[in-house]
Amino acid sequence: MNRRHAVLGLALSATLASGLFAPSARAGENTVILETKDGRITIELRPEIAPKHVKQIKTLVGQGFYDGLKFHRVIDGFMVQTGDPKGNGTGGSSLPNIPAEFSSAPFKRGTVGMARSGSPNSANSQFFICLGDADFLNNNYTVVGVVTSGMDVVDKIKKGSKGDNGSVQNPDKIVKMSLGQ
Questions:
Q1: How far is it, in rounded angstroms, from Cα 155 to Cα 166?
Q2: CATH label of the domain that carries residue 94
Q3: Which domain holds residue 153?
Q4: What is the pLDDT of residues 108-152, one digit of tens each?
């Protein structure tokens, strides 16, 4: 582990300890396990700050919707995005879009947020994981959770072209996404 990763790990630990991303009393039912070719990413969902978004993600996970989907947009130092069955950033699920649930939770490294179009009320199935701090997203996108383990795995996800807004050729995929502990 290099110094930068050690510092970022300490920052994530401090964020968790601050209570912004403290596990809920019923953490197991709000834990998502995302398996990739490089390992496991554990995400703690935050229903107390985004109940409608969390419910939608849990419903889609239960349907197996995310299994096999591509990390179609990955921008080094910013974020990895997935959750689009079309694989190009324009798709969603058959469920209705979700109204925005903005909160004071900040977009920091490891934060999981919902992707959307230009309309704040257009989130559906796509989500992203921040690779770095992204304060410009605060109060403009919905925070749905935080990576509690596996950021080293997130860092290994194949990056896209900066010139093509993060579009990834032959992208990595979600092997399986499940609810668990």
A1: 14
A2: 2.40.100.10
A3: 3-179
A4: 999 999 999 999 999 999 999 999 999 999 999 999 999 999 999
